[in-house]
Specification:
This protein has 208 residues and is mainly α. It starts with 11 loop residues before the first helix and ends in a 7-residue tail after the last helix.
Amino acid sequence: MQIPHFPEANHPLVKSLFHYSDQELLDLFQSHPEAGKYFTAMFCRYSPIVYTLIRHSARSPVQADYLFALTWRHIYYELGGLDLSDAASKETLTLQNWLINMTAFCINDLELPPTEAIHYSLQATSPPLWCYIEQALEQMPPVLRLMVLMAQTFHWSETRIAAYLQAEGEAIAPAEVANFLQEGYLMLEDKLPADVRAIYLGEDLPQS
């Protein structure tokens, strides 16, 4: 298994952060939750180490890629409260050591589905983009979010989505589902950080 290459590492927004220390990136990530470039820069810096640890423990390349993404999702949610100079610790923790500990935790504790049940593609969705899409989904109205997930994750037709929603008490006709989906996609994109849209969707760089 080769260590995957992530094109976002070459994006100007990410490259401009390469000279920052780990502590500086962590501070910027924690103080600017509306920005995605700081987490993406940490991901690009440490993805080779994390992937190397994971690929030796997974049974298949598909499981390795999925566990890699799940690990970075776990890291993303834990980073917000991370203090590398925790007074309870006798020695200062480095970000690299903390990431290795988080990776080991995920390798040992996360239950992976069988290979044939995994539909995640590392080439299609890089872990930072996945984290921010998930965060954007959480901010959407429940019915819109459900429709987007049915269409994109399960590839349900508009008729099937309408039938499911009607069974759940939502009076939505199949013809309306297409409009709701369009609204959902636009809202999802709008809720992504501007720099994430620039890095992953090729939008113009946000003006500082």
